[in-house]
Design goal:
By secondary structure, the chain is an alpha/beta fold. 39% of the residues lie in helices and 14% in strands. It contains 15 helices and 15 strands. The strands form four sheets. It has an eight-stranded mixed β-sheet, sandwiched between helices. Helix 6 packs parallel to helix 7 and helix 6 packs across helix 11. It is globular.
């Protein structure tokens, strides 16, 4: 049935990763049957429920499909972004607090910046072979990185934070290698790693970032890379604290061959200081995105790291897209030079909305988390029920399964467009946050508050 490919693993996450890796590299082909659950459980020496959980994960991610007695088989067109399919359709009249987008009212107008960049391009068109990084953007970026304590290193420009993460992983790892990822964590990262033929191992997270001991266990078990979100962690809002950064650096120094990737996608919308981990390992990369503060469609992030890593990323980029549009880079330079975004005011606005919802939930006996960024994570006993009841009450929230590997269930609420007050000029009523808190508390019922790791 499976030819020469052996499915492996003792845990549901390992079994599903084994199958997904085989699909990604073509060792399991579209339409190929998988063993019946009891047969595979016997072969692996595990409980049939473990295999059932693995198959359920693979179905949710769009890797396999099940047709009753005809068994489970690899989908004819396997999805590599299965978690994106786990979303709630927002009917008319339901308030969307699930999308994860910044508040459009806090994004800068782009027309003048792009007009200025286009005028410059008209005077001196960008041709093949020119520098891939605008010198003025490099100067501004380096000054900001220096101010935040990010070690010196060469710079590259990539098409967003996730593009940078993918390029760094591909530059150093081979199929079958293991990557330690935050759990809960950004769903697209959790999709990206297996799509590259890599394995994931979950690392628990609290408000101060990844647990150092979880990282240690993952590296002891052979993980070759670690991805850390420094601030505005999605979905929990965690931000790496000074104490947690010291603990993580201590662990990483014991494993200097670990590939360390830091994601600072929340730069410009957070008011907490950065505590970088960079330079504690031989190969490292730090990615800083402009999307949250200046607009997702800019598709632009700055990447720095050790010389070997940045050289590999830049070299592979030259063989593909070549470079990220200098027109876009120069438009961002104009936005930065003109102070188009008051980053402190934006961070404060998101902070007030997060805090207001967390405090409103606390008054109702509901624990929630959101130390930075634009999202609040609410642990729930039953995700499916909570999402359905909230939608019935007029609120669309993101189900936690989009962001989890083995972490307990939860829901993600994006606070970016919630009203701050009645007379703040935002056109919404003060009662919006209170109404949402009422709906969440009602959807959870009398269950006790829970942690999220």
């Amino acid at each position: 049935m499976l030819g020469e490919y052996p499915i492996s693993g003792r845990r549901a996450a390992d079994i599903s990763a084994s199958v997904e890796r085989a699909v990604g590299v073509g060792e399991l082909l579209p339409g190929q049957l998988l063993p019946p659950m009891r047969e595979l459980a016997e072969r692996l020496g595990v409980n049939p429920n473990t295999v059932a959980a693995a198959y359920r994960t693979l179905r949710e991610r769009g890797v396999i499909e099940t047709a009753g007695r005809r068994g489970s088989r690899v989908r004819s067109a396997p999805a590599t972004t299965g978690r994106d399919q786990i979303r709630v359709d927002v009917p008319e009249g339901v308030r969307d607090v699930a999308a994860g987008n910044p508040d459009p009212a806090l994004l800068p107008p782009l027309a003048a910046a792009f007009a200025a960049a286009a005028a410059e391009a008209d005077r001196a068109p960008v041709l093949y072979g020119e520098t891939p990084v605008d010198p003025e953007l490099a100067r501004i970026a380096r000054a900001g990185l220096d101010a935040d304590g990010v070690p010196d290193g060469p710079l590259a420009v990539v098409s967003g934070a996730l593009d940078g993460v993918e390029r760094v992983l591909a530059a150093h790892l081979k199929p079958g290698d293991t990557v330690a990822v935050e759990d809960p964590g950004w769903g697209r990262t959790l999709d990206l790693v297996p799509a590259l033929g890599l394995r994931t191992v979950p690392v628990g997270v609290d408000d101060d970032g990844p647990y150092a001991e979880d990282v240690r266990r993952a590296l002891e078990a052979g993980a070759r890379a670690l991805i850390v979100t420094d601030r505005a962690q999605n979905p929990t809002g965690a931000a790496v604290s000074s104490a947690r950064a010291r603990a993580l650096r201590s662990v990483l120094r014991e494993y200097p061959e670990t590939l360390l990737i830091e994601d600072d996608h929340g730069h410009g919308i957070v008011d907490l200081p950065l505590h970088p981990l960079a330079c504690t390992t031989r190969h490292w990369a730090f990615v800083r995105s402009a999307a949250k503060a200046y607009g997702p469609d800019l598709r632009l992030a700055l990447l720095t790291g050790d010389a070997v890593t940045v050289d590999r990323v830049s070299g592979r980029q030259r063989l593909g897209p070549g470079w990220v549009s200098l027109l876009t880079q120069r438009a961002l330079v104009r936005l930065l030079a003109d102070g188009a975004v008051d980053t402190r005011a934006v961070a404060a606005a998101y902070g007030r909305r997060r805090d207001a919802l967390i405090e409103a939930l606390a008054r109702r006996g509901v624990t929630a988390h959101g130390r930075s960024g634009m999202n609040v994570w609410v642990p729930v006993p039953d995700e499916t029920g909570a999402v359905a009841r909230l939608q019935h009450a007029g609120w669309a929230v993101a189900p936690g399964v989009r962001f989890r590997l083995s972490a307990p269930p939860g829901i993600r609420v994006t606070v970016s467009t919630l009203a701050e007050n009645e007379s703040g000029g935002e056109g919404r009523k003060e009662g919006e946050i209170e109404a949402l808190a009422d709906a969440i508390a009602s959807a959870l019922g009398p269950a006790p508050a829970r942690g999220y790791v």
